[in-house]
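Module 6 notes. Inverse folding takes a fixed backbone as the condition and produces residue identities as the prediction. Think of it as a translation problem where the source language is geometry and the target language is the twenty amino acids. Below is one complete input and output pair. Work through it position by position during the lab.
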């Protein structure tokens, strides 16, 4: 993963901490196929992932559950655990914030040997800061442009990076047949009959 993509994720965490995120279906399927192998499950999963309305999604998921109820439940359990893990990480971060200022700011002030209470007024308590942060998301903010795109050095890759357990792309294969002697394994240029004559 490039540094630019990590920067986008970090920027979302900082600027929009309560925004819902979506997950890549290909990565969810990579975990799904470890337990449920086969082309039939693959087709059912991708039909559900690509559905554009709730009715198609529910009918696809119903078909998965009727085919094998455990696969549907395991997929939902995987998503539930992932969301619970995210909630727990966020809760642990908030639990550590017992100071008036955010922990990083407090650490920088303490590093310089100063007292953090001198840097904030009486109104800047934890609830007021949280109210300010939540309130700033509802106000009209100016338009944010995406980061500037810089052209990377070298020729761009045409193929995507494949996962370690993913099958490689099938290449054209076949045996070479010589036009002079009609034998397999070499061509006209490297034919022994041509060299002998």
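Target side of the pair, the amino acids:
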């Amino acid at each position: 993963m490039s540094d630019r993509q990590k920067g986008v994720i970090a920027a979302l965490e900082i600027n929009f901490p309560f925004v819902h995120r979506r997950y890549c279906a290909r990565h969810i399927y990579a975990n799904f196929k470890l337990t449920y192998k086969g082309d039939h499950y693959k087709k059912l999963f991708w039909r559900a992932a690509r559905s554009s309305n709730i009715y198609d999604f529910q009918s696809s998921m119903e078909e998965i559950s009727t085919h094998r109820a455990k696969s549907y439940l395991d997929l939902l359990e995987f998503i539930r655990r992932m969301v619970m893990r995210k909630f727990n990480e966020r809760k642990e971060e908030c639990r550590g914030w017992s100071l008036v200022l955010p922990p990083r700011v407090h650490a920088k002030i303490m590093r310089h040997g100063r007292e953090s209470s001198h840097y904030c007024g009486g109104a800047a308590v934890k609830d007021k800061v949280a109210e300010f942060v939540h309130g700033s998301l509802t106000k009209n903010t100016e338009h944010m442009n995406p980061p500037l795109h810089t052209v990377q050095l070298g020729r761009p890759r045409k193929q995507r990076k494949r996962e370690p357990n993913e099958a490689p792309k099938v290449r054209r294969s076949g045996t070479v047949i010589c036009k002079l002697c009609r034998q397999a394994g070499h061509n006209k240029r490297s034919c022994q009959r041509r060299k002998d004559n």
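Reference fact for the lab report: The CA atoms of residues 100 and 121 lie 10 Å apart.
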